[in-house]
Amino acid sequence: MAEKEVIKNAEVKMKKTVAALKNEFQTVRTGRASAALFEKIRVDYYGEQVPLNQLATISVPEARLVIIQPWDRSSLQEIEKAIQKSELSVNPNNDGKVIRINIPPLTEERRKELVKLAKHMAEQSRVSVRNIRRDANEELKNLKKESTISEDDEKRAHDEIQKLTDKYIDEINSLLEEKEKEIMEI
Fold it and tell me: What's the pTM?
């Protein structure tokens, strides 16, 4: 019974690793406009650093256009400054009511840099999954040492954890492949 708990905990941690990678991938810019690009931007609002999505509505009416409409018009200048300071390399246009941002197509060189970044993120996630496997296998060894589980149970649990590891690494690889296609499409 104890080995089932170890397997369950390992799977929960692996799922969280894959979910974190999905979130990270959303912040990587592609040639298309996306509200997720602006999730990490923080705006100075009355002395506080507030996430942009808590100050304004972010909409994507066209493939290469983002419109940011603040609920408080007095924050328009601060939002514009925060976007200009961000790593997005976009130029916001402020008309006094909303901010329009045209998302320029990416250069070939920039696409390759972003693919490299995505590969690095995916590799970090693979390493995390393997570390979770290692920790779970250590726990199983300790349970066997304490005679809490039999050798057969330990072997079965090791196999089960390896299957989980393979499953989640495959999932990470397919997420990466999808993101690469997204980045490279024109």
Answer: 0.73
